[in-house]
Amino acid sequence: MKTSNVFTVLLTVIMTSAIYSQDRTEVRNEINKGIIKKKVAMKTYLIEREIPEAGKMTAEQLKGISQKSFSVLKEMGSDIEWLHSYVADDKVYCLYRAENEELIREHAEKGGFPVNSIQVVSTKIGPGTAKN
Question: InterPro entries in the record, alphabetically (predicted)?
């Protein structure tokens, strides 16, 4: 009799665990689908920022700017994402993904960053494009 009860309890625990695990997997999959759909809906933007002598900034100055940008992005949430930036002589070119251009401008305002132009990136090409 005791063996039968232990078996029943064990079977119940195993079944409950399997159902719970399946439910968690389904919930995780649904969340990931939403995130993927959101990322696909976001556009990529090229931002031109005129910053005198940007190319002469020290690593410490660039780190400070990056930290400020990151803290503003963290505050703004997942509707805007910084991909990377290129620093040239008197300009910085930044690539962002965002739901809309207004978020790019809001980020710049909150961070105290100049915005001289914002362009939506329509496509990306490279050496592989020539081979196709």
Answer: SCO4226 (IPR042557), SCO4226-like (IPR025336)
